[in-house]
Write a structure and sequence with these properties.
The protein is of the alpha/beta class and 358 residues long. The chain is built from 14 helices and nine strands. Helix content is 49%, strand content 15%. A hairpin with a 4-residue loop joins β1 (82-84) and β2. α1 packs across α6, α6 packs antiparallel against α8 (144-165) and α8 packs parallel to α10.
Length: 358
């Protein structure tokens, strides 16, 4: 075949891929619709309300009927709400409300759409990073990244951390009940730290993060939760946080964001008591790319491209571990840092929960 030859096309494959791409286009714009529905309280107003007309929903949310009518049509076309043409009404089912309207639900996902909305706002920075190779610091993103990440991760932590993740670790729950010293590295807005502090009133907790505004928000959240006496928050990195003799150090969905995860894990090992434990929570992933060709990993690889990997590349060492490193690579990092006992303690469809001891 010469350079000018045109390859014979598989028309059926082409048609199938066009349909797939149109579906992705619909999903992309509908993601914005979800973000608007969340931000404007449209889903919350529909939850448990039964069938509603556009005018009723607009009146309940202080929005304009014409905009709400178009939004509801998009939601009906995507199967997010049910449409009754004989009455001109729209309804959010109880099942869909758990995903879209109830922030206490373990399957609440509006935070993910908020996170992705922040990524679209930062697209110029991402394009520049692709061409220069530079990183993008965690604090250099659209502000919705931080609140979106909080709302994305908190439901899973609420549902699993105390009930299943901690019990999967050897002896940790008993220590926490008796009174343990706990450090939460990369605590962000403090969700994980506060969940722990609420559950174990005899233990003391400190959350560290490099992002000052997140620490300020975490302090406020601790006061609102009534745990500020046993949960404090300070600005510090994983490589230079103070203290030793800790019974438990936690890393929730942040080791892969670090420029020097080996150095961070080494500092954590040095900070642990002789019988202390590291709890590492990371995004679920298989060992190889071919093990991760699924919707969950598609989401994680996308977020890793524009958030996790640029964050790592903006720091010293800049390892760029990525959000889909997988258990073997994570174990290698921990062993290189000096941990001798490393195991996957449990997992969910979205998380790997790894226990490490010196």
């Amino acid at each position: 075949m010469t350079m000018t030859d045109t390859p014979r096309l598989d028309e059926a494959a082409l048609e199938q891929f066009v349909h797939q791409t149109v579906g992705d286009l619909a999903a992309a714009i509908s993601g914005l619709m979800v973000h608007l529905g969340d931000r404007l309280g449209l889903y919350r107003a529909m939850a448990g309300a039964g069938p509603l007309t556009p005018s009723t929903l607009a009146a309940r949310t202080g929005t304009r009927e014409r905009y709400v009518q178009e939004w509801l049509a998009n939601q009906a076309a995507g199967g997010y709400v049910a449409y009754a043409p004989e009455h001109g009404t729209f309804e959010l089912s109880a099942e869909h409300a758990l995903v879209l309207a109830d922030e206490t639900s373990p399957v609440f996902l509006d935070g993910a759409f908020e996170t992705i909305a922040s990524c679209y706002a930062d697209h110029e920075a991402f394009a520049r990073a692709f061409t220069t190779g530079e990183g993008i610091g965690w604090g250099d993103h659209d502000d919705r990244l931080y609140t979106g990440a909080l709302r994305l991760f908190r439901p899973g932590y609420e549902a699993n951390l105390v009930s299943s993740w901690l019990p999967a670790l050897d002896g940790v729950v008993d220590k926490l009940r008796d009174g343990a010293s706990v450090v939460d590295i990369g605590c962000g807005l403090g969700a994980s730290t506060i969940i722990l502090a609420r559950a174990f009133e005899h233990s003391s907790f400190v959350g560290y993060d490099i992002h000052g505004p997140s620490i300020d928000a975490a302090r406020k959240a601790a006061e609102e939760a009534g745990v500020e006496r046993r949960a404090r928050f300070e600005v510090a990195s994983a490589q230079d946080f103070p203290g030793t003799g800790y019974d438990l150090v936690t890393l929730f969905d942040c080791l892969h964001d670090m420029g020097d995860p080996v150095g961070a894990a080494r500092r954590i090992r040095e900070s642990l008591a002789e019988d202390g434990t590291l709890l590492l929570v990371e995004p679920a992933a298989g060992e190889r790319l071919e093990d991760n060709l699924n919707p969950v990993s598609r989401l994680y690889y996308g977020l890793s491209t524009v958030i996790c990997t640029p964050s790592s590349l903006a720091q010293e060492v800049g390892l760029g571990l990525g959000a889909q490193a997988g258990p073997t690579r994570l174990e290698e990092v921990l062993h290189e840092a000096g941990f001798s006992h490393v195991r996957v303690a449990t997992q969910t469809p979205f998380n790997l929960i790894i226990e490490a001891r010196a």
